[in-house]
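re: that chain from earlier
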Amino acid sequence: MSGRFPSESLAGLDQNRWPEWVGIRTQAVLGLGESPWESLFAQLLLGGEKFKDRIMGMVKAKKLGSEIVARKKLTTYPTLEEIVRGVSEAFGVKEEGILLGGKRLNPARNVALYLAQRYAGLGNEEIGRIFGGLHYSAVSKAAARLREAVATDRELGKIVRSLDSHFKA
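^ sequence. v structure.
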């Protein structure tokens, strides 16, 4: 092959090693110490922190389509602390009672579990661990019970819709 890399031929190059080959060649041409592929964020962004932050700011308010494989990494989520704080304020209870309360009939805890499942970008297993060692299926059950309760309890529904719109934005 003629050109910049006379010693290398693309013929017979294993397709799985293509990114590695491009990275090595890019390093050689640009005189970089590390492969640019190491800096790739969300399989989409290649650039410094300022560039990444700028793009994340632009994407923040957008609904990302399902064709964007790494949309979870590009989406900013409320932290679990923000969710628990919001639920604590809405119900007028202490944050510790939400996180550690082992009571099944604790509406504030169930709302926090539901919102964490919906908006925190965490899996049920991780949410359960944070909420005092709940099994992942218990997180699902609590969220399902809350949805049922919202359908019959107007006051609870009003609180959940308010919190829902707050964290959705």
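The first strand starts at residue 40 and ends at 41.
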